Amino acid sequence: MTSGRVVLLDSLKGRDAAALLVDGHLEELAIDPEGDSILPGAIYRAVADRPMKGQGGIFVKLPNGGSGFLRQISGISPGQRLLVQVSAPTEPGKATPVSTRLLFKSRFAIVTPDAPGLNVSRAIREEDTRAALSDLATQVMAGAAPRLGLIIRSAALEGDEDEIAADITAMRDLATAVLADLDGPPELLLDGPGAHETAWRDWASPAPDMVEDRAGGFEAHGVLEQIDALLSPRVALTGGGHMMIEPTRALVAVDVNTGPDTSPAAALKANIAAARDLPRQLRLRGLGGQVVVDFAPQPKKDRAILEQVIRAAFKGDGPDVTLAGWTTLGLYEFTRRRDRLALAELLA
Question: CA 51 to CA 71: how far, in whole Å?
Answer without folding.
Answer: 10
